[in-house]
Amino acid sequence: MRPLLHIARRLLKAEPVAFLRGLALGITVLAMGAALLGLSGWFVTAAAAAGIAGIGIGFDFFRPSAGVRFLALGRSGARYGERMLTHDATLRALAALRLGLYAGITRLPFEAQTRLRGAEALNRLTSDVDALDGLLLRLVLPAVSAVAVQAGAFVALWVLVAPAVAWGVLLSFGLGGGVALVFTLRHARARSEATEAALQSLRAQALDLAQSRADLAVAGALARQEAGLANTIRAEARARDGLETTERQGSAAIALTTGLAATVALALGGPLAAAGTISPARAAIGVFTALALGETLALLRRGLAELGRMQAAGARVTALSDTPPRPKPAAPAPRPDRAAPLLQVTALRHHRAGAARDTFGPLDLSLSRGEMVLLTGPSGAGKSTLLATLAGLIAPTAGEIRLLGAPLAAWPEADLRAHLTLVPQRSALIAGSVAENLALALPAGTVLPEAEAWAALEAVALADVLRAREGLATRLGPGGAGLSGGQARRLVLARAALRRADVLLLDEPTEGLDPATAAAMLSGLRAFAPESGFLVVSHRNADAGAATRSVSLTVPGHA
Amino acid sequence: MPQTDEPPAANPGRADAALTRLAAPATPALRRAGALSALAELLWAAQAALVALALGGLISGTERLSPLAAAAGFLALAALRALLDARAGALAQRAATALVESTRHRLIGAASRQDARARSPAPAELASLAAEKVAMLAPWAARYSPAMARVRIVPLVLLALTLPFSWAAALVLLVAGPLIPVFMALVGMAARDASQRQMAEIGTLNTLLVDRIAAVADLRLLGAEARAGADLAAASDDLRTRTMRVLAVAFLSSTVLELFSALGVAMVAVYVGFALLGELNFGSWGGLSPEAGIFLLMIAPEFFQPLRDLAAAWHDRASALAVADEIETAEAAIAASGTILGNGAPAAALPPAPFSWRGLVLSPGPGAARLGPPDGAVRPGEALAIAGPSGVGKTTLLAALAGLIRPEAGEIRWGETVLSDSTADAIRAGIGWLPQAPRFIDAPLGEALMLGRAGDLDAALTAAQAQGIVAALPGGLSARLGDLGGGVSGGEARRLMIARAHAAKASLILADEPTADLDHETAQAVLAGLLALRATGAALIVASHDPAVLAAMDRVLPMTAEGGA
């Protein structure tokens, strides 16, 4: 429950005024609804009494009937305003929540970020955010309005009917609502987590079956995988049935509560009216108001049903949003030593926790200005891990890295990224125009200089391709969809080149390119940034032609 | 900002028919559930009568039913009503779950037997269809369909109960009631439009967030985390403005609905009050009693309640229609594609024997020219290369040899056994399969490699010289290779597949471009692994255009584009 309260506070803080206004209107809607039915009940009963007594002529029917019409119209109007206000505020608050989530994810360690890129994890993340949209709309705001309206109704019933009826109605709703809440709190989370887990596993297994269909068929394992999936489908159905049962029981508790409150109002108010303590019309107010107050709980019903899902989603979103800030190196920031090599690596080693051998190393390496060093080695020699370590994304197990004369860890994040950039093998583009993608390389708020952008595109031999389309305005879909693999690769490299960093670490930059384009691109990059040093991982012998020298990595333990 | 295309507007008539067909098995249960929930709703009339009798007695001073007795009856009926409603809910929910479950079973069962050429539905599409999308049928069945049943029954019965007391009150309901369906039709159209647009909008926001999160490591390397965050904020704000415009319409329509029901109730209340005062002398059959007046006031809101429930569940119907349409499209695509031979079930392997094919005619895909690959044969322990430029149909031939595509003519033999539906599983039990881009199922590596068969995996890894790959993984054989292949490269994955062939004691290996995209050293390791398999007596059929691979084989079978039939 704690993470949910935490998120509710965060959402409220994002738009406090709008939510307060929405809350006020929400209370108005419920109060007018209760008043409408109570007034109608009183009006009809009192009119009947006056009619029987033959004093119908003297009965003031104008004000009650005007009140009934006013309440009917006003309630609908207030409801419209309340919905618009709270939905707008919720959308704003959710945007803030998404941003907080994004900011938290930017602070995660590199390995954790890599794990988040899987479709599975991303799917879960967005559905978590979506699940939280009902937290204020369907849970917190209705709960607060319910309490406020019940309190108001208590006072009104005390004055208009009788203290006993006021107490009876309040206690009925308190008891019934409390039981429904406690029951849901107790069961909903586990059941909704079970349902969610079953659904995720169903999706994963269906994906496996569809993707590895041929492979499974040849291995004679298709029937087995199918049987496993059939079991998961059944398990998901059982889990969902359990969850729905919880929801149904909660709804039944709420329906019974309203029935109980009206019963209590009738059983307490009726005898009072029979004894002449209050008029029958006042007793009617009690019964009708109790019935209308059922709305306060009914609004909470959907929120309660979603509570379990929200709890689980809230816990995950809070955990990600609250990622602690990255450790900052002790001030002051080092100054670049122009005389030192760009990169100086000594006895560098990496060992993955739980693995039986080292990933790479020990390794010594140095990179100077104007150099392009080719890093080769068989698959499994840890080339990509080495580049991530040199870029400060992964901590080495032992050894030292010096960038421009100072230890890598001494550079503050912004300076580090300004001096060194890495283009990983699976580098991502974002949805948007080519210009927007390139602009990511520049400091926030800077406009992309067109000439510089075209020069970078020229350097990676992509300018002609884009000129044939819509130039810098060419639009890309999510993940850079719309470009071929090789084109996307070159756009990523152009973006990195625009950083004008001293050190460029490139992981398989020529993958998927024909040899002529690959050679043109590597020499183009060197010409674009003659003062920089390049460290290039490649398995293509042809790339050696563009490099100043080669360094070969071996698989540790196999040397 | 990205503009995700709006989902193609489903043809409503077609989607309606699809949903009806899909839900046909659940219909009887849903009908029973609907009737039961309508009955529960109608119990309210009895509750109202009890209250009316008690209050009416208090007014006239002639007690026909004591308030306590009325209260007791009211509570008992409320309990019965809640019970019936819960029963109806349980019935509808069971039918809904069964509908979802059987649709999933049918989809998966059909899709898993599609042949190797089938491209539609794409795996990710099928997975999301079978998981969260099919689940959207449940709210339609469990909520919308009982609400629809209540709309058909409850207002009519309540109207019939009103009429004997007052034709004027009945007239108010009769006018306000049908106006609501008229507005509902308008609301329905607007809400369907609005919700479709809104779904697209929210989808876009999620796409945007996912896109940025997937690129977050790159954004850090570019020092662009803050910049991308600001973009995200601007996009969210823009989308919010547009979503609110859509919601303004949707809320307005539902407000009209609420207004009509509130006005209906208010008019009944005012009419009843005036009639009881004696101010109005028409509309009832010779005067309204206090009991009748209170009764009419109490059942008026319930007259409108089913319509409000239906409006609330409207969105469930829109989602179910969209999903039904998608399911129908996917099922049609699956039915249109070919199936594999056999069942893909475990079988006893046939003894090693010469493997041959002749006279094959293959269709690589819809619209593509037919292939007539050259005849060929391979003996145990022999290595055959199938050579030819990319696109010539080597992959299609290998798939046909494994019984994953039905040839249009010709035959494939394992010794004397002809490949057919009844022999395919047994023939495949002797085959080791090495696709160009191996992918492992989401399970611990040991299980992903063995797939439930017995065998000595350690020895197989040693034979394939793949222990080093496993040793570098955190957790070794219990490591899970997720959907981004977390931890192994393409070359390593192929060597692990060779280890699988060792473990399965395969006597025929089908390998597709085993050295493509690999550095020299890794290519050597893969080739050595294949030759080690041959050394155990297995036959090799390797599709490749790598000279080093062709040189290592015993024979080369060239495939040319002119082979088309």
TrEMBL record, chain A:
GO terms for biological process: cell redox homeostasis; glutathione transmembrane transport. Residues 343-559 form the ABC transporter domain. It is a multi-pass membrane protein. Residues 22-309 form the ABC transmembrane type-1 domain. Its main location: membrane. One of its GO terms (cellular component) is plasma membrane. Residues 324-334 have a biased composition (Pro residues). Signal peptide: none annotated. SMART domains: AAA (SM00382). The chain crosses the membrane at residues 18-36, 42-62, 135-159, 165-185, 253-275, 281-300. It is found in: Cell membrane. PANTHER family: ATP-BINDING CASSETTE SUB-FAMILY B, ATP-BINDING CASSETTE SUB-FAMILY B MEMBER 6. This is Thiol reductant ABC exporter subunit CydC. The lineage of its organism: Bacteria, Pseudomonadati, Pseudomonadota, Alphaproteobacteria, Rhodobacterales.
TrEMBL record, chain B:
GO terms for cellular component: plasma membrane. Residues 355-565 form the ABC transporter domain. The lineage of its organism: Bacteria, Pseudomonadati, Pseudomonadota, Alphaproteobacteria, Rhodobacterales. Residues 33-319 form the ABC transmembrane type-1 domain. Keywords: ATP-binding, Membrane, Nucleotide-binding, Transmembrane, Transmembrane helix. The chain crosses the membrane at residues 171-191, 246-276. It is a multi-pass membrane protein. This is ATP-binding cassette domain-containing protein. Pfam families: ABC_membrane (PF00664), ABC_tran (PF00005). The keyword ATP-binding applies. PANTHER family: ATP-BINDING CASSETTE SUB-FAMILY B, GLUTATHIONE_L-CYSTEINE TRANSPORT SYSTEM ATP-BINDING_PERMEASE PROTEIN CYDD. It is found in: Cell membrane. One of its GO terms (molecular function) is ATP hydrolysis activity.
